[in-house]
Structures are given as C-alpha cells and as structure tokens.
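TASK: fixed-backbone design
INPUT:
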C-alpha cells in the first residue's frame, strides 16, 4: 500500500484468518476485538471484509515491485 494512501483497514496491524476443512475458522487482528482470536462468524466476516478492502486498494503486482524498488533506492 503506498504511504500516500488514505487511511485503510490495515493501518492497525495485520489481519489473520485461518479456515479449516470442516468449515470453521479463527481470526485475529491487532486492531480488532482487542487483538484476541475469535471464532465468531460475524467477527471473521468483518476481518475478511477488511482484508478485501486492503486488496482492492493495493497496487497491482508490477506497480508494487516498482514502489518497493523505489523505496529501497531511497534508503
């Protein structure tokens, strides 16, 4: 995500969701639900929606690579 981007759901830390073969899932995020793991389907859906928003706003792969290379060149 470019540093010039407006606020997005990933600013408060990583989002993790694990889905299992039996249809259950567990998820957590540093910035949601006090950072505690949750198996509540509603909370899992919130995490999935936040992750989807991040993906929709992120740069495409080639632009991401160029952005990272530019940042590395500045350090």
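OUTPUT:
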């Amino acid at each position: 995500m470019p540093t010039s981007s407006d606020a997005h759901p990933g600013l408060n830390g990583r989002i993790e969701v694990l889905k299992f073969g039996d249809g259950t899932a567990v998820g957590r995020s540093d910035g949601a639900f006090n950072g505690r793991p949750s198996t509540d389907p509603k909370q899992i859906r919130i995490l999935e929606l936040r992750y989807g928003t991040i993906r929709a706003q992120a740069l495409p792969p080639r632009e991401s690579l160029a952005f990272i290379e530019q940042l590395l060149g500045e350090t």
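COMMENT: Residues 41-57 form the longest helix (17 residues).
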